[in-house]
Write a sequence for this structure.
């Protein structure tokens, strides 16, 4: 079966992917990227194409479909602008320090 062949997927999985893809497109994601993300989500939820056979089923989880928009929002919302700014400045200093350390370690090797 060539890559990208969707014959192993059920009609339900195909509908799910289509619906997820439309949601991404509505949010401004390019069509090709939206399709890739949609199928990745369906694969994560259902374990890939549903092949027939006893004992080959895998439990379906809806967590990947509900993940978007929740990661990172609540923590930032509960902090003041000054706290967020201080955190961002600290992160920038850490990134700069780590980059300098990597550069220094690379030149001595």
């Amino acid at each position: 079966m060539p890559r990208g062949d969707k014959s192993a997927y059920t009609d339900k999985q195909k509908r799910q992917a289509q619906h997820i893809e439309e949601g991404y497109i509505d949010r401004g994601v390019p069509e090709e990227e939206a399709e890739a993300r949609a199928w990745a989500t369906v694969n994560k939820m259902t374990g890939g194409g549903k092949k027939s056979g006893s004992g080959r089923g895998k439990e379906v989880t809806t967590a990947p479909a509900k993940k978007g928009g929740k990661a990172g929002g609540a923590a930032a919302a509960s902090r003041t602008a000054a706290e967020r700014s201080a955190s961002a400045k600290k992160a920038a200093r850490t990134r700069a320090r780590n980059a300098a350390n990597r550069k220094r370690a690379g030149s001595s090797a």
User: Anything to note?
Assistant: The chain has five helices and no strands. The chain has a mean pLDDT of 84.
